[in-house]
Every structure is written in C-alpha cells, then in structure tokens.
Design a protein that fits this description.
- It comes from Algoriphagus pacificus.
- It contains 7 helices and 11 strands.
- The strands form 3 sheets. The protein has a 7-stranded mixed sheet with strand order 5-4-1-6-10-7-11, with helices on both faces. A two-stranded antiparallel ribbon has the order 2-3.
- The protein has a single domain, classed as Spore Coat Polysaccharide Biosynthesis Protein SpsA, Chain A (Alpha-Beta Complex).
- With about 230 residues, the chain is an alpha/beta fold.
- The structure holds cytidine-5'-triphosphate (CTP) and the ligand C[C@](O)(CO)[C@H](O)COP(=O)(O)O.
- The site of the ligand C[C@](O)(CO)[C@H](O)COP(=O)(O)O has 8 residues, from strand 10.
- The site of ligand LQXTBERG has 8 residues, from strand 10.
Length: about 230
C-alpha cells in the first residue's frame, strides 16, 4: 500500500519567542525539521514525504538544506493560516486515489519509529491510528465559577501525532468547514461519525513549543545517540 507523511510546519512558533521559527532551530546542531524527516525516512525510505511550510520560508528552507547537505527527498507545500488549513493544503497536494497518510507535527522530532509503524498498521486495519499516551498526574476539571472537580484519569489520554489515516477517508473528512473543535486531525475524522483508533505513543514525542523543550530535546537527542 502507498504510504505518505504530511509534516506540518506552517506555524510561526510564537510561544518559543525566538528570532527564527522553532521548526528551524537547532537541536544537536541540526534544525528540528531535519530530525523529524529523518525518522520517517528511517521507517521506510519509500514513504512520500510532504513538508508544509509558510510559503515565505521556502527559500530559507532550501538554503538550510544546502548548508546542511540535507539529502532526504521531500516535496514542499505552502501552509495556511491555521494548522487545519496547512493539513488540508498537504492533503490537496496529493493526487493518489488510495493509500495511507500519516499527519505529523514537524516539531515532534522525537517520535519513535515503532510509533510511526504502528500508526500505519492500525490505519490500514481500521481506518485510523492516533498516537496517545496515558497521564501520569492527577487531573481536575475547572468550571466557569472557579470550582474544580475530580476526574478519573484512567479515562483520559494525551493526544500526540502521528495521526495516520486511510487517505480517501481523511481527504473526505477535510472537505468540511473548519471548526474550533478541530485542534487535531482525529477530531476532523471523527466529525464524519467515524470512530478513531488509538495506538500507544512514546513519552519522548514532545511538541517543541517553549524554550525548555529545546533543552529537554538536547537531552533526548544525547540519550538517543548514546552520548
Ligand atoms: N498555520 C499553521 C499553524 C501551525 N502549524 C503546525 O502545527 C504544528 C503544531 O502547532 P504549534 O505547536 O502550535 O506551532 P505554532 O503555531 O508554530 O506555535 P505557536 O502557537 O507558539 O505560534 C507545528 O508543527 C506547526 O508548525 C501549521 O502547519 N500551520
Ligand atoms: C495536533 C496536536 O499536536 C495534538 O496534540 C495539537 O492539538 C496541536 O495543538 P496546537 O494548538 O497547534 O499547539
């Protein structure tokens, strides 16, 4: 079955507060996005890689690829004004009739190869494979009047990416008008009335968001490379 990955990196990284967008910042001396593309290639060099970037960053990215002699083949697609729009642009760029597509945040460079493989397997079997992890802390629900309430944490999961789908179904799901509840791709799929299937994510698969995440990322990379 044909496999593709859409790596969304069309955001501005405002919470990072850095002079350049977080997807280009170095971890272990190499831009975040190059780590992410490398993990997918490691899983299977046949996976078609689609990288969604702000259009105005294309020249900068090409320059980085030259500077780092980055050779992994990938296609560039222009991002949109929201994550939803960026994913949709990635999907619209694909003319395949069927196959599987993993949608992944470009700023999650520490996803494991096992999680990617399992998400493809589950999507092939059931339509979708969404990476999630269990909570370690207790959680409380807040009400508008300032109260808080106990929640049974065994019924909750933290949602990561990849979120992998049968292409025809996720393309159909993204024909919908964008809604506020679409904070990820699973909610767009589910809006069609289809049940999503969860798979175990990996705890290191953090979304690089704030400066502390870069420090933790350096630690994770050193651990991964046995330093
Ligand atoms: N218009 C957008 C907004 C976000 N993303 C991508 O979606 C992923 C998750 O979003 P987030 O971590 O919120 O990234 P930013 O929007 O860049 O961060 P911030 O909210 O701090 O500006 C990132 O890989 C980001 O680049 C995207 O492709 N297009
Ligand atoms: C898709 C996501 O990473 C799943 O946890 C998350 O919803 C992205 O949220 P953000 O608001 O774009 O950071």
């Amino acid at each position: 079955m044909n496999k593709a990955a859409i790596l969304v990196a069309g955001g501005k990284g405002t919470r990072m507060g850095a002079p350049i967008s977080k997807q280009y910042l170095p971890i272990g001396g190499k831009p975040v996005l190059m780590h992410t593309l490398s993990v997918f290639q490691e899983v299977d060099p046949q996976i078609k890689l689609i990288l969604v970037l702000p259009k105005e960053d294309f020249a900068y990215w090409n320059q980085l690829c030259q500077e780092y002699d980055f050779q992994i083949p990938h296609e560039l697609v222009a991002g949109g004004n929201s994550r939803f729009q960026s994913v949709r642009n990635g999907l619209d760029s694909m003319d395949w009739k069927d196959g599987l597509v993993a949608i992944h945040d470009g700023v999650r460079p520490f996803v494991s190869t096992e999680v990617i493989e399992n998400s493809f397997l589950e999507a092939e079997r059931s339509g979708s494979g969404i990476a999630v992890i269990a909570l370690k802390d207790s959680i409380r629900k807040l009400s508008d009047d300032g109260k808080s309430f106990y929640q049974e944490r065994q019924y909750f999961r933290l949602v990561q990416t990849p979120q992998t789908f049968q292409l025809a179904k996720i393309k159909k799901a993204f024909e919908v008008t964008e809604m506020q509840q679409f904070t990820d791709d699973a909610t767009v799929y589910e809006h069609q009335g289809w049940q999503v299937s969860l798979i175990a994510g990996n705890p290191e698969n953090i979304k690089i968001t704030t400066p502390e995440d870069l420090e933790y990322g350096e630690f994770l990379l050193a651990k991964k490379s046995g330093r």
